[in-house]
Amino acid sequence: MFPTAIAVLQLLPPGGSGAAPELMQSAVDLARSGLGSDTGQRTLRRTAPWIVLAAILVSLLSLLPLAFIIWIAVQTGWETVSALVFRPRVGELLVNTGLLVLLAVPIAIVLSVALAWLTERSDLPGARLWAWLCVAPLAIPAFVHSYAWITMVPRLHGLWAGVLVSVIAYFPFLYLTVSAALRRLDPGLEDAAAALGLGPWRVFLRVVLPQLRLAICGGSLLVALHLLAEYGLYVFIRFDTFTTAIVDQFQSTFNGPAANMLAGVLVSCCFVLLGIEVLVRGEERYARVGSGAARYQQRARLGRATIPGLLLLLATTLLALGVPFVTIGRWLVAGGADVWRFDEIGLALGQTLLLALAGALLATVAAMPMAWISIRAPGPLQRLLEGCNYIVGSLPGAVIALALVTITVRIALPLYQTLFTILIAYALMFLPRALVSLRASIAQAPVELERAASSLGRPPLNALWSTTIRLSAPGAAAGMALVALGIMNELTATQMLAPNGTRTLAMAFWSYSGEIDYASAAPYAFIMVAMSLPLTWLLYVQSKRMAGR
Amino acid sequence: MSFLEISGLHKHYGPVAALAGVDLSVASGSRTAIVGPSGCGKTTLLRLIAGFEAPDQGRIALDGEVLANGGSAVPAHRRGIGVVAQDGALFPHLTIGDNIGFGMARGDDKRSERIVELAYIVGLDKAILKRRPHELSGGQQQRVALARAMAMKPRLMLLDEPFSALDTGLRASMRKAVAELLEAAGITTILVTHDQAEALSFASQVAVMREGKFSQVDSPRELYLRPRDRMIAEFLGDAIILPAKISGGFANSPLGRIPVDTADNRDVARIMLRPEQIALKRTSREGMSGTPDMLFGEVTESEFGGSMCTIAVRLLNSADPPDAAAIGNTPLVLRKPGMDAPAVGEIVRLTVLGKAHVFA
Question: What pLDDT shows up at residue B20?
């Protein structure tokens, strides 16, 4: 039960960032300790050479984009590289991107901790409904958030607009991790602190908050990586970040060294974030010490603070859900029946679903060997391979797309702008999502079944297929659904890599809104949100179940 | 002079009554144990005393100060009551030293000195202070929790099954150490436990709790030898319960004429003996003849258990039984030192030591 739900939490990122799983994994250290370490290394050597080989291949493939960026840098030569990197434009982008992260992330942390506490630990009326409303903004792609705001407040632009929309679009990541951590805290510790003479506020600051550190770190990294990767959101409000600059550069000079070097700087930024997170997270263990079941948590009485609490949730909901829904609704009404060009919409929907399903399938199949190894035969090799995948998963879609463009154009031109290449890109971007979900469900399939099948005469791979893989099907399906969700709302990489004539929902939305035809864009936004909502509901339900409720 | 005074305490969780009218008074500097099966409400009572929850009804007063009266309650952090939880509840994000010093004022110059002193008092090495809770063994964690609670010089110490997570050998020594330590510090203590042996050996006053109420509050010896009813008797240890006729300070029972602890006369009564009140002496079938007033039995089962053996003895003759047929076939189960326990098939002579207790 427990690992599945964590996996779902880990699956959240709708953009290219998949670093989340690893981080949240550390945030919920508990999960890992329980996973079949008893099966040990011997299993690996005995039954799984093929599986290990497959996992290594997938990992090598996933390192390809990174390798190419380095290779291009080396090939370009130091002088050109330094000329391209050390220039005012890059400095400006660095300042923009840095300020964005430095402002948006702390605001999102404060907001999420407050919301999580209100919905999880206070007697706020309708806490369950509010909790779901805090997760629901995830169903709306970030660029649709931005579209809603820009059509409502056309003059919105610049840093503060970027901060506003970024917080609104991405705070649910932090909310989910923090509220999950809050639910799991041992209330005994808070009792102990109270018995030692600490008032409620000091208990929160000295006992609760420090234990949320891992969740806050993981969630913040997730949000920060999304801010680095996001493209559409910032184009609407005319705020330049590295990602928008890379895409601009790509559109004007194709895959020239300039775009590649910007990508190199962006990748360095991602690594800096990963490093900061590792430093801040530290080596500490925040799991429950001691044995016995934790008591149920008591909810704090808000009393007079109920009204401000409700107002905070109401305001957040209005900004994060009200604005997009009202805007989309308004444009749909204004556009009337004319904007529902069903032939066009049908085509876009069909193409989107095809790409989403094929990409999800590929990502899941690619994740399978790794997931199996990490449960059945954990060890240094498995950690190394997994690390590779998570690093690639944390790279912005624009970077992966650029690398694949460069690779196909230089080495395998026939593959340029083919279905094959875009599916590879999706698989690389969303592999971590498929991986965590598979890993969780494989962890629940007892290894004894595999052994029983072997003892009944099935060869290893057959035994694996007829037991573990069958049993992990629901988890795999959930993982596929979440990968599909990511692909459906993906814009940057799709634009750069998709075969000519491709027009997904996101692309159609993007081109109409680029022509300021907001009414025609509305049906596409509506369909994307409508298709994503059930998945966020699933996410919400699973995160609740994790706490055994 | 009672230090802690609890009266008419009620607490409901939904339709379930966790406490249904609890009264208790605890003398200053004494040790009280609250013992009962799990789910009897003892932890709820402790939480109410600590102030983690407020009672529905009833009153708690400590040293003359009212802590809770009906729904209004002083919050836990203003009570100055130390709590040691079952698992220690150490803060995983702090070092051992910071855990111990958690309740002290942070600006205090003597803080670190006092932490070292407390660690010494509870028997922890100074080197341990830099470590983290998860690096410690269960016993060490409990010592840290105790030191942490003692750091704020509590008026009252509540121990919530603090020894139950420890293994058997450690449990007894920890119990003794904690009892001595709190005694020396003069801190009034309440221990909650489901382990009757622990309760009896730890406290000067033991309260047996069942279904949200105290069934009996007494000294350990009194409670053990003169329990109010059969359930209390059996909860506190093995008991042999026999039908008997009481007259003139003696009971006529299947085990013969036994002195009892009451002067009342009763035709139908039940008496209780603890198994250790029955002494066995080896003899043989020949030894049985010509001694009609003596009681003999045959060992039918013997289970080796290390220091103590459990043996079953079937009575061979029974003096003046009200319903001898019923008892005659039910063997007496006794625990005897393993070194000299009679073997299966041996004949033993039974004698009763001390007085039997008559249930009201």
Answer: 92
Q: Rounded to an integer, what distance in angstroms lies between the CA atom of residue B344 and that of residue A135?
A: 71
DSSP 3-state of A114:
helix
Residue range A298-325, pLDDT digits in tens: 788 888 889 999 999 999 999 999 999 9
pLDDT of residue B319: 52
| Cross-chain Cβ contact B141/A290 below 8 Å | yes
Is residue A44 predicted with pLDDT exceeding 70? no
**CB contact (8 A) between residue B77 and residue A197:** yes
Structure tokens at A171: 């705070």
pTM over 0.90: no
pLDDT digits (tens, 9 = 90+) for A386-423: 778 777 777 888 888 888 888 888 887 888 888 889 99
Query: Does pLDDT of A361 surpass 60?
Result: yes
∠ Cα A486 A491 A495 (to 5°) = 135
Asked if B50 and A207 come within 8 Å (Cβ–Cβ), the reply is: no
Q: Which two tokens stand for residue B61?
A: 């007063």
Closest Cβ–Cβ partner in B92, B102, B133 for A196: B102
Distance CA A257, CA A260 (A): 5
* Selected residue of A29, A190, A191, A202 to mutate for chain B interface (largest B Cβ count, 10 A): A191
Q: State the CB neighbour count (10 A cutoff) for residue B117.
A: 13
- Three-class HEC string of chain B: CEEEEEEEEEEEECCEEEEEEEEEEEECCCEEEEECCCCCCHHHHHHHHHCCCCCCEEEEEECCEEEEECCEECCHHHCCEEEECCCCCCCCCCCHHHHHCCCCCCCCCCHHHHHHHHHHHCCCCHHHHHCCHHHCCHHHHHHHHHHHHHCCCCCEEEEECCCCCCCHHHHHHHHHHHHHHHHHHCCEEEEEECCHHHHHHHCCEEEEEECCEEEEEECHHHHHHCCCCHHHHHHHCCCEEEEEEEECCEEEECEEEEEECCCCCEEEEEEEECHHHEEEEEECHHHHCCCCCCEEEEEEEEECCCCEEEEEEEECCCECCCCHHHHHCCCEEEEEEHHHCCCCCCEEEEEECCCEEECC
Contact B50 A195 (CB under 8 A): yes
What string of DSSP letters covers A254-271? TT-HHHHHHHHHHHHHHH
Query: pLDDT-based confidence at A284, cuts 50/70/90?
Result: low
Q: Which two tokens stand for residue B320?
A: 């003046």
Q: Which residues on chain A are in Cβ contact (under 8 Å) with B83?
A: 191-192, 195
Positive or negative, the CA dihedral A25, A30, A36, A41 is positive
Between positions 10 and 69 of B, the ones with CB within 8 A of A are: 47, 50-53
CB atoms under 10 Å from CB of A523, counted, come to 24
**Residues B292-346: tens digit of each pLDDT:** 678 888 898 888 888 888 999 888 876 554 454 455 567 888 888 888 888 888 8
Assess contact for B131 and B95: CB atoms under 8 A. Answer: yes
**How is residue B305 written in tokens?**
């258990």
CA distance A373 to chain B (A): 29
Model confidence over A496-514: pLDDT tens digits? 888 888 889 999 999 998 8
pLDDT digits (tens, 9 = 90+) for A333-356: 988 888 888 888 999 999 999 999
Using a CB-CB cut-off of 8 Å, the residues of chain A touching B52 are: 191, 194-195, 298
Task: Tell me if ipTM is over 0.85.
Answer: no
* B350–chain A Cβ distance below 8 A for any pair: no
What's the pLDDT tens digit per position in A125-138? 998 899 999 999 98
Model confidence band, residue A34 (pLDDT cutoffs 50, 70, 90): very low
By CA distance, what is A289's nearest residue in B?
B134
Q: How far apart are CA A189 and CA A178, in angstroms?
A: 18
